[in-house]
Task: inverse folding
């Protein structure tokens, strides 16, 4: 590369952090102030975007960064929704405790199923997670303690303003985003990506495969469960066939694939596109999933790495600044990081 070319590229590299910080500040200001200048419809749209972004980031953390492609994430959506419903409707406790219970129950359930499903590889892991979610759905339909297949109306949702629900969604979305950024800036995150690319080679370099998978799975499950509670606070009604429906995971896959798997920005872009398309296709509910599927297939053919992957390849833009060059020395201490 010539000196002139390098000189031309240097200002762009120097300007990148400024663009990044300006973009982040503007985004935070807009989102925090949105309820005070946006109408109810706009607030509701962004509430959905933030919630779907949260579950998209968690599915992307598993599949895009750890290589754990799951079709059973709906299990934690349902557990989160039922945790909220039981706390608020059955025990008549403050509904915010439902979010705490959602995280605890999701982590406990993830621990229970982790040993059998982590002994499955590749497509068997994917199918195994789906079967677990389906079994959980059947169990809840026959469990009297959770009102069988009738479900619950979450009446506390009717007492909350759209602004309150929006800020809950904002909090959940922010937690999911910061969790992913923090993980990817750590050696533990580097270990996850190494494990995704080559399990055998990463294990030789010191990555504890089972421990890394488990920690990643528990984090994803906990935040997905909390997001599930937020989603059903917004929907105000839950029953097993909906709470544990595979449509939730289909939505996560669509969001991640369209936005860009293996990028933090991908689920943000994907959730915006997904929510807007769902609104446009509202009157075509019977065909909406088919249309979304066709769009996803076309996107995979045109831009296999998603919209953010395409932008990154063309411009090198990385909003959260988590990309770094991998050195052999980076792998030193991954074992310790996984143990923390």
Result:
């Amino acid at each position: 590369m010539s000196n002139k070319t390098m000189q031309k590229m240097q200002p762009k590299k120097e300007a990148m952090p400024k663009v990044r910080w300006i973009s982040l500040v503007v985004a935070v200001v807009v989102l925090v102030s949105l309820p005070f200048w946006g109408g109810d419809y706009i607030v509701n749209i962004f509430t959905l975007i933030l919630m779907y972004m949260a579950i998209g980031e968690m599915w992307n953390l598993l599949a895009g960064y750890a290589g754990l492609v799951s079709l059973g994430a709906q299990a934690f959506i349902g557990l989160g929704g039922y945790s909220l419903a039981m706390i608020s409707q059955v025990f008549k406790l403050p509904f915010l405790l439902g979010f705490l219970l959602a995280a605890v129950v999701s982590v406990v359930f993830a621990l229970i199923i982790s040993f059998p499903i982590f002994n499955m590889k590749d497509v068997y892991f994917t199918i195994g997670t789906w079967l677990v979610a389906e079994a959980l759905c059947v169990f809840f339909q026959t469990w009297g303690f959770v009102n069988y297949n009738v479900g619950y109306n979450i009446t506390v949702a009717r007492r909350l303003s759209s602004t309150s629900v929006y800020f809950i969604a904002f909090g959940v979305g922010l937690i999911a985003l910061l969790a992913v950024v923090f993980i990817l800036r750590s050696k533990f995150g580097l270990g996850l990506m190494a494990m995704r690319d080559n399990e055998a080679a990463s294990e030789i370099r010191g990555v504890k495969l089972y421990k890394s998978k488990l920690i990643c799975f528990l984090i994803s499950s906990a935040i997905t469960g909390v997001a599930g509670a937020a989603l059903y606070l917004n929907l105000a009604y839950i029953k097993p066939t909906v709470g544990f429906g595979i449509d939730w995971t289909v939505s996560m896959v669509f969001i991640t694939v369209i936005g860009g798997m293996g990028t933090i920005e991908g689920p943000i872009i994907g959730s915006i596109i997904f929510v807007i398309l769902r609104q446009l296709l509202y009157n075509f509910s019977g065909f909406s999933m088919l249309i979304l599927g066709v769009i996803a297939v076309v996107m995979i053919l045109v831009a296999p790495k998603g919209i953010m992957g395409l932008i990154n390849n063309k411009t090198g833009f990385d909003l959260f600044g988590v990309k770094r060059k991998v050195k052999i020395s980076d792998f030193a201490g991954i074992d310790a990081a996984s143990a923390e």
Remarks:
- The radius of gyration is 21 Å.
- The first helix runs from residue 3 to 37.
- The domain at 30-339 is CATH 1.10.3470 (ABC transporter involved in vitamin B12 uptake, BtuC).
